[in-house]
Amino acid sequence: MITHMYRVNIEVNGEHQDLEVDGRWTLLRVLRDVLGLTGAKRGCDLGECGACTILLDGEPVNSCMTLAAMCDGKRITTVEALGSSDALSPLQNAFLENDGGQCGYCTPGFVMSATALLESNPNPSDDEIRQALAGNICRCNAYGRIIESVRSASKEL
User: Fold this and answer.
1) Which residues are CB-neighbours of 13 under 8 A, at least 6 positions away?
2) Where residue 147 falls among pLDDT bands split at 50, 70, 90?
3) Parallel/antiparallel/unpaired status of strands 5-12 and 53-56
């Protein structure tokens, strides 16, 4: 089997990364398996569930559908950059306080989509929140709590 390797220079959570990646690797694979950033979850691998959502140059994208080789020169933000266990971001804290994370598997993707929304629109309506989160699926059906979490965080920002 012939593989094509590509050199990519990316910024991940504020740190420069100079990597050699196989042309078939997704950004999700590089984040999880090469860089050890496991916040973005492998869900459907089809771009339908949103569990792997990250910010690519500030825009939410499904990292399972993004080829790493196409990210040269890009800025990537994962949920790991938003806060720490000692100091959660206001949005992460709102998810915790409002039980917006139930099982938690989808939570990083929702948080990343909501982060992009609140950066562009700090006071969204419930309809705008729903639209921004439309690419994310919660199997626990915690949508009401998720929307309340985003609404609550928007009031603190």
Assistant:
1) 37, 76, 77, 78, 80, 81
2) very high
3) unpaired
pLDDT, tens only, 104-145: 999 999 999 999 999 999 999 999 999 999 999 999 999 999
The predicted pLDDT at position 2 comes to 77
pLDDT at 157 over 90: no
Check: pTM over 0.85? Answer yes or no.
yes
